[in-house]
Design a protein that fits this description.
Elements (H helix, E strand, L loop, with lengths): L30 H18 L3 H15 L5 H6 L12 H13 L3 H9 L3 H6 L6 H11 L4 H9 L11 H16 L6 E2 H16 L4 E6 L1 H4 L4 E2 L2 E7 L2 H9 L4 E7 L3 E6 L3 E8 L4 H9 L2 H13 L2 E4 L2 E4 L5 E3 L3 H7 L15 H5 L11
Parallel strand pairs: 4-7
Antiparallel strand pairs: 1-3, 2-4, 5-6, 6-7, 8-9, 9-10
Helix pairs in contact: 1-2, 1-7, 13-15
This protein binds a DNA duplex (8 and 12 nucleotides) through helix 2, helix 7, helix 9, helix 13 and helix 14.
DNA sequence: TTAGTATT
DNA sequence: CATAATACTAAA
């Protein structure tokens, strides 16, 4: 998610739109601005190696703001203020308040003074995460893509831990692809429908494939998709994945293992294919449909019921007995839930709403 | 075997 | 205090 539109994000804080005319008119900070700021903070903290729970807190706050229907400025003015938002504690509420009031955020400016914000762009390269970015910065003084490109091609990265010959090759390839086409972006659903259905049908034609379905944001019916996800029930996963990687639409194989294969097709669109034994198909389809937040919520609920959920099924924590897995509805049922339509699987209260037995508060409204 | 990145 | 679980790759 979040492919950061990033037309070369400015070095300065996004919020510092400081009313250049000097009219004194209040600067409007949109919810999107706040989301970007919170995510920026999270990314920089992560590169700095800060407490993962703190990083998570900023990400969680960003997600909550994303889900809001009301402008933050309105909420700030109401009873309880920003603290009323789930995931907003004292620290984050105060920072967002400052951003809304002044259009700037001192904390972020300080952070950007400490950790070069251009490292966030480096983190967008596939295969490069916060740890690698931090190593590049500390061990080789690299903070920009240009510096990285130069160093990668001139032996300037020798000696950086966990960055061997093979990783370097991959890095250079990623830099080349980055030049070739600007950044991965989400595409309108209609643009990928043909490709999605074609790939699905080609897999359905394989004798080894018992069942083939699309999953991910495509199945959730989202207006745009960042990639495609396909689940295949089969007794012969390697054979299926080998065929998948050899389909005529495949432009590049990103990775290929025994249960999972990712390729690019349709002009750089990533397509993930997961091969799963038939008795696990329901759990796998559920897992691959997401959303990620929905899955995490579901798995947390499973734990509270003494169960554990993964893409292979629902299991008892003690004893490990299998409770469900072949059908999606049976997975939800094992967790005491009615089947939830994919479109609603966004972690926006749908799980409580689907809860049977112990009635969920119906939030009269 | 482990670290890092990736996936929902 | 503190959200789940797993796969793949390269390095060690």
């Amino acid at each position: 998610m979040a492919p950061a539109p990033s037309p070369a994000s400015p070095p300065a804080n996004r919020g510092s739109v400081r009313d250049p005319g000097g009219s004194g008119a209040p600067v409007t900070i949109s919810n999107r601005d706040v989301v970007r700021t919170l995510e920026r903070i999270a990314g920089l903290l992560e590169i700095r190696g800060d407490n993962p729970f703190k990083v998570r807190a900023y990400r969680q706050a960003a997600v909550q703001v994303e889900n809001l229907e009301t402008p933050l400025s309105e909420i700030a003015a109401q009873e309880g203020g920003l603290r009323a938002i789930e995931g907003f504690g004292a620290a984050i509420a105060e920072k967002v308040q400052e951003l809304l009031r002044t259009g700037r955020l001192g904390f972020l400016e300080d952070l950007e003074g400490e950790v070069p914000p251009t490292l966030l762009t480096i983190c967008e390269l596939p295969g490069v995460g916060p740890r690698t970015a931090a190593a590049l910065w500390h061990e080789a003084g690299i903070s920009t893509i240009d510096q990285l490109d130069h160093a990668a091609r001139s032996g300037g990265l020798a000696g950086i831990p966990r960055l061997g010959a093979r990783s370097l090759e991959n890095l250079v390839a990623a830099l080349d692809r980055r030049v070739a086409r600007g950044g991965r972006r989400r595409r309108p659903r209609e643009e990928v429908t043909g490709l999605a259905e074609t790939l699905r049908d080609e897999l359905r034609a394989l004798p080894a494939a018992q069942r083939v379905e699309l999953a991910g944001s495509y199945r959730r019916g989202e207006a745009t998709v960042g990639d495609l996800d396909i689940v295949v029930a089969t007794r012969h996963p390697v054979e299926v994945l080998t065929c998948f990687a050899a389909l005529p639409q495949v432009e590049r194989v990103i990775l290929r293992g025994d249960t999972k294969c990712s390729i690019e097709a349709g002009g750089g669109l990533q397509v993930d294919c997961r091969a799963i034994p038939p008795e696990s198909f329901g759990a796998a389809w559920q897992y691959f449909t997401g959303s990620a937040a929905h899955n995490v919520r579901l798995r947390g609920r499973a734990l509270r019921l003494g169960l554990t959920l993964n893409e292979y099924g629902v299991y008892r924590v003690e004893g490990g007995g299998r409770v469900a897995g072949a059908e999606e509805a049976e997975v939800y049922a094992a967790l005491g839930l009615d089947w939830i339509p994919p479109e609603r699987r966004l972690d926006r209260g749908e799980i409580d709403a689907a809860s049977r037995g112990v009635s969920a508060p119906m939030a009269g409204e």
